[in-house]
Amino acid sequence: MGRRSSGSGDPSSRSVAPIRHGRLHSSHPVAAIAKVLAAAVAVVAVSSAAVGAFAVYDAVSASGPGIHLAHLAGAPSVKAAPAVGPIDGEVNLLLAGSDTRTAQVGYQTKAELAGSSGAGNNDVTMLLHVSADHSSATVVSFPRDLVSIPLCGKGISSAMFNSTLARGLSCTVQTVEKMTGLSIPYAAIITFNGVTGMSNAVGGVTVCLATPVKDDYTDPQLNLPAGQQTLVGDTALSFLRSRHGVGDGSDLGRISNQQVFLSALTRKITGEGVLGNPITLYKLANSALSNMHFSDTLNPTTLVSIALALKGIDLHKIVFLQYPTVADTADPNRVVPSTGPAAALVAALKADQPISLTGKLGRAAVADPTVASPAPAPAAPAPTASGSAAPSVAATPAPTSIALPSAITGQSADQNTCTSNK
User: Fold this and answer.
1) Separation CA 172–CA 159 (nearest Å)
2) Is the dihedral of CA 304, 44, 198, 250 positive or negative?
3) What CA–CA distances, in Å, run from 84 to 38, 139, 281?
4) SS3 155
5) What is the DSSP string of 42-101?
């Protein structure tokens, strides 16, 4: 099984190839969050045995030399990880899912590789933000079709966001740094192969389908009936890559479909004893980490410390959301940032408090009618772009979360949702 494309440095050292797309326009996100919740998870057992630490070290060592990140305003400070224990302060970690077919199982012929090769495109990009007090985590998904963004910190560009990885992981990091105002010291590239191994390692992930999911554009093709479906191996990969079979057929629908899956995965990992099973943790760590290319700021000890920072976060304080966008008036197939909601999201991330959503679920998600919805947590008014919260009329208890504008879609990990194609 191939693991990654040749070359150990930042892809920015190579010339930029034209952006090409085959039938499949997606990448795999599960290794993204699963990586954090798995690698993270992988080390929760470290306190009781060295098995988890060895597993992470073994997998990371196999991933090759790290990528050196260039940043907008110099390198952000990287805290030395403690020998044992959670990392100090907040964590900002970017995960780019490459759609490259190079060295990926099932893609051998010239025609199969024509869709994407080399560094590939970042068709899935997620930013994990863990608060400084380790009480909450936010995962922001960035649409692949974003335009009018500050590409690599070089000003406004009409290039699509998913072209940044072809210019190097640093370009993707810098673009997200500019869009969020956050310093992102940690990053990794993930390829297709990890999805199959990750889903197998946890014995599959059971998701709710409100409607049948059929997609002839994935490989293998999807033809799943409505109801509870346990997704394993290549079927899980196709489900996460599906665009035509979920929501309205757009990339935005696909993002919310991924959030349904990732929330279910999070609940399984935290609720079925996975955290205390060194054998399963080893499989998770090895499946995820051996299929990733890390920045040189991520080493085994740092991964362990980030993992431990995630250990005690309540499910309702783990929020998956989509970076807010609106349709591009110049091209209906592209989206641009929604200025007001995006500014509120940036301010909330900088405020470093738990986030709560007031808007709808994503385009491909509906509430699971068989499960009672969790009671919403008290929320503070959304901060302004300057970071200050709107004043309240009467004195209220200390806020437990910041409410985002209703235009921002997503869900928390404790919400049971179903995928829908309507």
Assistant:
1) 12
2) negative
3) 18, 25, 18
4) coil
5) HHHGGGT-SHHHHHHHHHHHTT-SPBPPP-BTBPPP-PPPPSSSPPSS-EEEEEEEE---
Q: What is the residue type of 67?
A: I
In terms of DSSP bridges, do strands 292-294 and 213-215 run parallel, antiparallel, or are they unpaired? unpaired
Strand partners, 327: 335
- Paired tokens of 249: 């057929």
Is the per-residue pLDDT at 391 higher than 60? Answer: no
202 vs 198: CA distance, rounded Å: 7
Asked if 186 contacts 94 with a C-beta cutoff of 8 angstroms, the reply is: yes
Question: Which residue type, as a one-letter code, is found at position 205?
Answer: V
List the one residue out of 196, 198, 377 whose CA is nearest residue 282: 198
Provide the residue type at 258 as one letter. Answer: Q
- Separation CA 121–CA 148 (nearest Å): 17
The first and second tokens of residue 272, run together, are: 């079925």
Write the pLDDT tens digit of every residue in 323-365. 999 999 999 889 999 999 999 999 999 999 999 999 999 999 9
> Residue 31: pLDDT above 80?
no
Residue 252 has a CB neighbour count (10 Å cut-off) of 22
Domains of the chain, CATH where assigned: 22-419 (3.40.630.190)
Q: Which residues have a Cβ under 8 Å from the Cβ of 15 and sit 6 or more positions away?
A: none
pTM here is 0.75
